[in-house]
Specification:
heterodimer, A: TIM Barrel, eight-stranded mixed β-barrel, B: 391 residues, disordered N terminus
């Protein structure tokens, strides 16, 4: 417990005068992983400002909630300092608008108790908080992501395969008996492995670091690939559906990429390049050059990691991609009427046949995607479907479990594939005309 | 962009400059060649390999004359001209045409005035057919896209940052006196009386800073480590601006920030100390790659900033980024459009309100283009209010 709880309890005991209210910002009700530090920091600043201008006192509690005890006039006064637009917005309205996207469905981020009617409720709330353990967070503390210097060495040296994973994108047939056809095998960095190697999680506080390390890894994959041809490892472009590499646009204009293209062309194997939306936007000249090179070489150009928010705010169709990877979120299934119309318009602009849903880790994304005309998927549920189709025909799968087959298929490091006696089928993703 | 051939387009152009090639044209050509291959559609192709001209024969007037030699093909059916990035040009059309002979004759005469020195016309101009020669045409497209020189490093001789160096740099910046690197740059509005100051952009001159404390490195060469570094610079800039004397009696201003900085403790202190007279007069400049890195935080920061009376500006973008990131859809009040030759060749997208545009890198030609588009706000060497020099 901290001073906030004790002060709130004392203030609640004195709250007997009509015309006061308690506004509680319910950060403790936010779904896991909870509010981000800036949510609470900014909310605190807004509450402090309102209390200073119109009267009131702010309490920061260890369960992350913030409480403003103030005259009801404070809650009716304009919270915005802007002359127009949102100028008439009250403090509760502003907080709800800022935080509404962060709470669970149907859960308001803010509650208001009128005093003294709700004084007992406030007393009970303050008493409960006081009885709980924990330290009150420092509202103005800012998490500084330390530079994970150890990761630099790992990204540059021996640990390359351990930091990568492989996942297969598939085309699902419509109808009752679902057909699954592998479209490509994507080589990408394993975020969890990167975080483990970093020794902490600096990427949430500083996503630029993740982009930096991902770019270094991707360059290393590109330069390592020629040596992998014909070695029947996870990075071998032969013997399976086309390999998809994640690259920054500038990497596509290098000689290393031209070498890989020539190798694949000579062996008549397919290749695709996945470019993160943020990389394409950061360097549009390089992206334009990369897009042209890929078109000239007949290599698929994929725009990766398109969130629902990005789909609503940006126009990925302007990048003329061959494929767009849309990230699944359960929000997709709960869109309002206008949001759903916006989404439909965006999908139409891209072309639904160019959309692949990633994060298909359960049946729900597949059902949602198929209902919206999307037939391309990637994710852990898809991995399991592929493994099931392999196990159903694999003559060497005497004692292999579904989980083992799934994990071996996603491993890039040699050790992760140990135990599989049919690597040809493992790398193919699924038997021809695999049905699940 | 590829264009249908038109004699009028070129002959009436007073500048008569050979147009810069573009990767976009290369991509379109590659797509066309591939489509011919898959659908069996026949097309004729004239490759004009201007990139193969020897030194001394590749000056602008040579290139212009060679380009003009393509004009007889104007009347060919479904003629399309593609300007490749290495200055090669490709014409694709349907069916036989006598214009081809006229073009080839012109090219032969053009390069035959100095036998033994000039290029072989047959090596400069090649006639091909699709889909039979698709592979060769694709090869030419690929060649045109290969960088002739290594990727440019922003500062000569500098190595990109690496994490250990960045760490040292961050520590140095945290302790350095940053006030000597603080700069102001006017953003001006045009009016009947010339330029008037709209606001000042206040920033830290990172170039001078790096020259001082890390002269052998090129911090901008690694985009993402540089962006991380800008967060440290943001904190120092906000710390400077939190001093009363920095914001008392000053004109409206803008400041470059990252989204994370806009949500940080230093900004909240700055906001709490902002004089009432400046409330609603401060513009926050944000970068495209920063907002896309964490769009959810951007939306939160955008709404918070608007509620506190700040205007948001999408900073330093080109037309491609404008198409990808419509500023109004993102909720920006302003957009800083970087003027460049590619901008001059186009029009401001119809969806963009000229009133929200600040035209950057403004010189005389940018002004002419901007005025034609209805743009009133300018930044650059030409945009100086009367009696005021850049500081």
């Amino acid at each position: 417990m901290g001073p906030g709880e004790r002060q709130l309890l004392e203030a609640a005991r004195r709250a007997t005068v009509p015309g006061w209210a308690a506004l509680i910002v319910l950060f403790s009700h936010f779904p896991p992983p909870g509010p981000r530090p800036h949510h609470r920091r900014v909310a605190r600043a807004i509450l402090d400002d309102a209390a200073q201008r119109h009267g009131g006192q702010v309490f920061g509690l260890h369960n992350l909630d913030l409480v403003l005890l103030c005259p009801t006039a404070t809650l009716r006064a304009p919270a915005s300092t802007r002359a127009s637009g949102a100028g008439g917005e009250t403090l509760p309205e502003l907080l709800v608008r800022l935080l509404r996207g962060e709470t669970a469905e149907g859960q308001p981020p803010v509650t208001i108790w009128q005093l003294p009617d709700a004084r007992d409720r406030l007393l009970a709330y303050a008493t409960d908080r006081l009885a709980e353990g924990g330290l009150t967070p420092l509202d103005h503390a800012v998490a500084r992501a330390e530079l994970p210097l150890g990761l630099t060495a790992a990204a540059e040296a021996r640990l390359l395969p351990d930091l990568l994973l492989r996942q297969t994108g598939v085309l699902l047939g419509a109808g009752g008996a679902r057909r699954i056809r592998p479209l490509f095998r994507e080589i990408t960095y394993a975020t969890a492995a990167l975080q483990a190697e970093a020794g902490s999680d600096p990427f949430d506080a500083d996503p630029f670091l993740l982009r930096h390390f991902a770019a270094r890894l991707e360059e290393r994959v590109l330069s390592a690939l020629p040596d992998e041809v014909g070695r029947r490892g996870a990075l071998d472009p032969l013997g399976g559906p086309p390999l998809h590499l994640n690259l920054a646009p500038e990497s596509v204009t290098t000689g290393a990429f031209a070498t890989v293209v020539e190798l694949c062309r000579a062996r008549k194997v397919g290749l695709g390049v996945e470019i993160a939306l943020v990389d394409a936007a950061a360097d549009p000249e390089s992206y334009a050059a990369a897009r042209a090179i890929l078109a000239a070489c007949g290599v698929a150009c994929v725009i990766d990691h398109l969130s629902l928010l990005a789909l609503r705010l940006a126009r990925p169709a302007a990048l003329a991609p061959d494929l767009v990877k849309l990230e699944w979120t359960s929000r997709l299934a709960r869109l309002s009427g206008s949001e759903a119309r916006e989404l439909e318009a965006a999908l139409v602009e891209i072309g639904v046949e160019r959309v692949l849903l990633i994060g298909a880790d359960a049946e729900a994304p597949l059902q949602w995607g198929l209902a919206h005309g999307i037939r391309r998927f990637q994710g852990r549920h898809v991995d399991a479907m592929l493994a099931a189709s392999r196990l159903s025909i694999c003559a060497q799968a005497r004692d292999c479990s579904l989980r083992q087959c799934t994990e071996r298929a996603s491993a890039v490091a040699l050790g992760g594939r140990v135990g599989c006696r049919n690597s040809m089928l493992l790398d193919a993703g699924a038997p021809a005309d695999g049905a699940v | 962009m590829s264009t249908a051939l038109s004699r009028r387009d070129s002959a009436d152009d007073p500048a008569r400059d050979v147009r810069q090639g573009s990767p976009e044209d290369a991509r379109r050509l590659a797509t066309l060649v591939r489509e011919c291959g898959t659908s069996g559609i026949s097309r004729q192709v004239l490759l004009l390999r201007l990139s193969q001209l020897p030194d001394g024969r590749n000056r602008p007037h040579h290139l212009q004359l060679a380009t003009d030699a393509l004009l007889p093909l104007t009347g060919a059916a479904r003629a399309q001209l593609f300007h490749l990035p290495n200055q090669d040009q490709v014409v694709v059309w349907r069916g036989d045409t006598p214009a081809l002979r006229a073009s080839l004759d012109t090219l032969r005469h053009l390069f035959s005035d100095d036998p033994g020195f000039g290029p072989d016309p047959m090596a400069i101009a090649a006639v091909l057919a699709l889909p039979e020669d698709a592979e060769l045409v694709q090869h030419v497209v690929s060649e045109s896209l290969r960088p002739r020189t290594p990727p440019p490093v922003p500062r000569l001789g500098g190595q990109p940052l690496d994490p250990p160096t960045l760490l040292a740099l961050e520590r140095a910046i945290a302790q350095a006196d940053m006030s000597r690197f603080a700069r102001r740059e006017p953003i001006c509005r045009t009016g009947p009386d010339g330029f008037r100051l709209a606001w000042e952009r206040r920033f830290l001159s990172d170039g001078e800073l790096f020259d001082t404390i890390l002269p052998d490195r090129a911090p901008r060469a690694d985009l993402w480590l540089f962006r991380r570094l800008t967060r440290t610079l943001d904190r120092r800039m906000l710390s400077l601006l939190s001093a009363v004397e920095e914001v008392r009696g000053v004109p409206p201003f803008s400041v470059d920030l990252n989204v994370a900085s806009l949500l940080g403790a230093e900004f909240l202190r700055f906001d709490a100390n902002l004089p009432t007279v400046l409330r609603g007069q401060v513009v926050i400049n944000l970068h495209a790659e920063d907002i896309l890195t964490d769009l959810a935080s951007f939306c939160f920061a955008r709404d918070f900033a608007a509620a506190r009376g700040y205007r948001l500006l999408l900073h330093d973008v080109g037309l491609t980024q404008l198409a990808l990131l419509p500023p109004e859809r993102l909720g920006f009040d302003l957009v800083h459009l970087r003027y460049a030759p590619a901008v001059a060749a186009a029009a401001l997208p119809a969806a963009i309100d000229p009133a929200m545009v600040v035209l950057g890198n403004a010189d005389a030609s940018a002004m002419a283009w901007g005025r034609a588009q209805g743009i009133a706000l300018y930044q650059g060497k030409i945009a100086r209010p009367p009696g005021r020099a850049a500081r």
